[in-house]
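Project standup — Tuesday

K.O.: blocked on the structure for the chain from last sprint. Re-posting the sequence here as requested.
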Amino acid sequence: MFARRTDSRFTMDVIVTPAEGGTVWQLTDLLGRSMGRITASAPRQFMIHPEGHASETMAGIQQGPHASLDAALAEIERHTRGVCRRNPGEDQL
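H.V.: unblocked you, prediction finished:
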């Protein structure tokens, strides 16, 4: 996992991969371990669902609803102090 300690928080980069017909995006760390997912339940209703080790890393994150996928990714970046990267070849998010 790519994580560096900054003060009392970790900095972590996240890979974002679309799945399930454009309503679910998988979140993984740089080693391919699941960090959770983002789901779109309705227009302008994007929710962040941390899982596994990310449950601790993302404790206290605003899970949503967020107005867009970009807004949800920005919340992850703010909270983890890292970067959300689209999976290479998956630029059509």
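K.O.: great, moving the ticket to review. The beta strands are 3-6, 9-12, 14-19, 24-28, 34-42, 45-50, 84-86. The chain has one domain: 3-86.
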